[in-house]
């Protein structure tokens, strides 16, 4: 599967962005989809994941502010990010894990200005 992220950009602290991840094949067959981020000089970290059944899990730092969702009819996953903080400036990556393997998108830059 190919994954293409979009929706990144520059936003002021406290603002919102909605990221999208479009998959090249049906997401009905994809077990887990998730968002990860990597800030300069830091390791890639989990932001949120969603299973095929709709169960979600979030990093503690984003709970209550970020919402992950998926629309299998559109082969797309989303990440609604509210109350963004400058320290959340990073490249955000989409991930899909299923029987074909583990796949990543190219990433989308999110920059939060103070």
Which SSEs are present, and which pair or pack?
Blueprint: E1 3-6, E2 9-12, E3 17-23, E4 32-38, E5 45-51, E6 56-58, E7 66-71, E8 76-81, E9 90-98, E10 101-104, E11 108-113
Parallel strand pairs: 2-11
Antiparallel strand pairs: 1-3, 3-8, 4-5, 4-9, 5-6, 7-8, 9-10, 9-11
Query: What fraction of the residues are assigned to beta strands by DSSP?
Result: over 45%
Structural category: mainly beta
Mean pLDDT over the full residue set = 96
Number of helices: 0
| Backbone CA Rg | 13 Å
Sequence stretches where pLDDT stays below 50 over 5 or more residues: none
Helix coverage percent of residues? under 10%
In oligomeric terms, what are we looking at? single chain
Morphology:
globular
Largest sheet: 7 strands, mixed
Order of helices and strands: EEEEEEEEEEE
| Number of DSSP E strands | 11
The end-to-end span amounts to 37 Å
Description:
With 114 residues, the chain is mainly β. It has strands spanning 3-6, 9-12, 17-23, 32-38, 45-51, 56-58, 66-71, 76-81, 90-98, 101-104, 108-113. Strands 2, 4, 5, 6, 9, 10 and 11 form a seven-stranded mixed sheet that branches. It has a four-stranded antiparallel sheet with strand order 1-3-8-7, with no helix packed on it. Strand 4 and strand 5 (45-51) form a beta hairpin.
Provide a short characterization of the protein structure:
With 114 residues, the protein is mostly beta strands. Helix content is 0%, strand content 55%. It starts with a strand and ends with a strand.
Index terms:
seven-stranded mixed beta sheet, globular, single chain, 11 strands, mainly beta, 114 residues
């Amino acid at each position: 599967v190919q994954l293409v992220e979009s929706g990144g950009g520059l936003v002021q602290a406290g603002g919102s962005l909605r990221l999208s991840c479009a998959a090249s094949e049906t997401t009905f067959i994809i077990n887990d989809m998730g968002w990860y981020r990597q800030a300069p000089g830091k390791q890639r970290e989990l932001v949120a994941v969603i299973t095929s059944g709709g169960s979600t899990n979030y990093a503690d730092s984003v709970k209550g502010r970020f919402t992950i969702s998926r629309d299998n009819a559109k082969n797309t996953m989303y990440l609604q990010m509210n109350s963004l903080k400058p320290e959340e400036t990073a490249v955000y990556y989409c991930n899909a894990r299923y029987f074909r393997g583990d796949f990543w998108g190219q990433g989308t830059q999110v920059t939060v200005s103070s």
